[in-house]
Amino acid sequence: MSMHSKPSPGPLEQLIRKNIADTFKPTVLLIENESYKHRHHAAMRDVDSTETHFRVTVVSEMFSGQSRIQRQRLIYSLLKAEMAMEGGIHALTLVTKTPEEYDIVPVVPKPDIS
Amino acid sequence: MFRSGLNNAVLRSVTQRSLLMSSRGAGLAPAHRYLAARFITDRAKAMIDDTISQNDLVVFMKGTPDEPMCGFSRAVIQVLQMHGVDEIAGVNCLQDPEIREGIKEYTDWPTIPQVYVKGEFIGGCDVMVQMHQSGELHELLVKEGILKADAETEVTDKEQ
């Protein structure tokens, strides 16, 4: 099996990681740059950035008692400027769990977005 | 108590990050970029108000239910169809820049698609998919009368 070296995380990905880590003290924080899957889409035609789409999984005690919408809003507000700016984050696929919920359902199937 | 503490943490972090941003020298200062996307027009607000009050279920999306123009919008339509929702009201945000920006502020949600049921925001793509997987979506659709309780709703999920 050949080993493909993963490209090192770009500045936006590092920023997402740092902000989420500082704020939510997550027990699990997975960030996948999925921008390559979307680069042919119409909305991406004039965008040079290779950091437009991320799949982010955050497991944090701080989500307990919060609805899915509340949890996502917290993350969106944390990354507001990056999402609003031109050439910034176009979309986040968010999985937000408490440690208890994450133990029960460790794998969330990906939606078909082809 | 807890929540306001968390929001404060979020706010602080946004401020810290704004400093980081400006040091990257990415053109306009962050504050200006906020403003550009900030103001919903009266027309857009009225149209959104009307749309969500006149449709039990409506999807603000890119493209149309018959022809979605974005994978996330397509996923939401597919999930609803899988549950047996035949006639889906869709608002094509690509056709109207005021709605496209306005709906984000209206809902306080930065991305499209957005699903409203009986005037209430239900979620975007991730929330819909997760509610589908947990069974909550079927419950909601029945409770709100979008689906009949005894309707044939063969929910199959090839990933499970």
Structure, explained:
Chain B: GO terms for molecular function: 2 iron, 2 sulfur cluster binding; disulfide oxidoreductase activity; metal ion binding. The complex is a heterodimer of chains A (114) and B (160). Chain A has one domain: BolA-like (GMP Synthetase, Chain A, domain 3, 2-Layer Sandwich). Chain A is built from four helices and three strands. Chain A has helices spanning 11-24, 68-78, 80-84, 99-104; strands at residues 28-33, 53-59, 91-97. The longest helix of chain A has 14 residues, at 11-24. The radius of gyration of chain A is 15 Å and the shape is globular. Chain B has seven helices and four strands. In chain B, strands 2-1-3-4 form a four-stranded mixed beta sheet, sandwiched between helices. The N and C termini of chain B lie far apart (40 Å). In chain B, 35% of the residues are buried.
Strand content of chain A: 15-25%
Please tally the helical runs of chain A, counting DSSP H or I stretches of 4 or more residues.
4
Look at the structure and give the mean pLDDT of chain A: 87
Question: Oligomeric state of the chains?
Answer: heterodimer
Q: How many strands, what sense, and barrel or not for the largest sheet of chain A?
A: 3 strands, mixed
Main sheet of chain B?
Answer: 4 strands, mixed
Secondary-structure element series of chain B:
HHHEHEHEEHH
* Strand residue percentage of chain B: 5-15%
Sequence stretches where pLDDT stays below 50 over 5 or more residues of chain A = none
The value of Rg of chain B in angstroms is 18 Å
Terminal residue distance of chain B: 40 Å
Number of strands of chain B: 4
- CATH H-level homologous superfamily name of the domain at 41-143 in chain B: Glutaredoxin
Uncertain segments of chain B of ≥5 residues (pLDDT<50)? 1-35
CATH third-tier fold name of the domain at 41-143 in chain B: Glutaredoxin
The helicity of chain A comes to 25-40%
**Could you name the CATH homologous superfamily of chain A?**
BolA-like
Order of helices and strands of chain A: HEEHHEH
Q: What is the CATH-assigned architecture of the domain at 41-143 in chain B?
A: 3-Layer(aba) Sandwich
GO cellular component, one term (chain A): mitochondrial matrix
Family (chain A): Belongs to the BolA/IbaG family.
Organism (chain A): Coemansia pectinata
Protein name (chain A): BolA domain UV induced protein Uvi31
